[in-house]
Specification:
Length: 400
Amino acid sequence: MEKKTTRKKIDWQQFFITVIGTAIGVALTFVVSGILERRNKAQAQRLTAIMVIHDIDNTVNIFQSWKDNEEKGKALLVYALEHKDQKEAIPSDTLMNVLNLLVRSKTEYHFDTSKEQIFNSDADTWQNLENMKFIDNVQEFFYERQRFLEIANNAEWFREPIPDEEFMQVIMNSGWVTEEEYFTELWAFLRDKLQDKRVAYYINVSHARVEALTQYIDKFTLLNEENKFIMGITDQELEDYVNSLHNNGIALTKGDLPGRWLFASRDQNMEYIFHSDNTYTYSNAKNSSYVKTPYWSGVYTVKVTYKGTWALQRDSLVLTPDYASSDVQLDPSGIVVEKDGEKNLAEWLNQYQETTLNYFREEDDKEYQYAVKARLDSSRDKMEWTEADGTVRYMKRKRE
């Protein structure tokens, strides 16, 4: 008897539903992938733009700092040039400040170019940003910044006129002399240099350096405002970016701060005592380098103390010192006195103390505040301070 073969009937409706479902799933995968890719591209675009805009803002701040220092130095240099034949008109502290402004440092003008390298090394930067005006602005900024470095580090009107080696030779040739004799030699050196036409030229064109820095500040500021506008970057986004660079740790609160905080290094102990009534006491005991005179030699310690007030403004700790409360104490226990040198040492200590106090009294005439970004670690016993120039320091709570 012949056996019949049974053929299974295909459910075509279910088959088409499965095929269509698979096709829709594949399509959705591509759609979702495309959306994610565009979103990631947009995020990369904004992050790159914010990174460069912050770099330009930071450069403007550096130029402003240089300009402020140049304006302060300008008045001092002009004064020294006008009184080059009057030794009594230039006391020792002013003499040293003038020489510091005229002696060429081995450190040249420079910028952190890491953001520039990232921007220029990424092959996808131009494609991702999709805004040629912004790219042109950024390239112009990098070019102009490099052009400034070439001028500042090479032009006679911008670089200090006295070679460091020449100044050091004067110091080494002075030998072991009294403080008065030492400053007499430095005064003679400065008076001779102020007769030098190159030194006089450098002083007389100080206004040109100020003007050049002002022009760079204005140009970069205007260029960056345009960048923020065309890229739609808000001040809040920039602030969030800056905070993300220093986002480690825990936000400082008013209840965390009261107590003794110590910053210690090899040759000094700096301490802040913060009180819950928003006042603080600052003290700094610093060891001198080894000093030798015909009358005494060794190391002494200078301790400066003053009071002030503090306040928290968002993530910043703002300190307002009261320099009128300053006190200066000298510890000469590390000094060995030569025969009949006690009187000379006592006179020198009194003069040093009075000079230092006068400095703080002069500072008290100015309204001064010191702000740092402050955060705590998880133990709340270690505090990170980030200063305006990017310098980071760490304070430790001092337990009683």
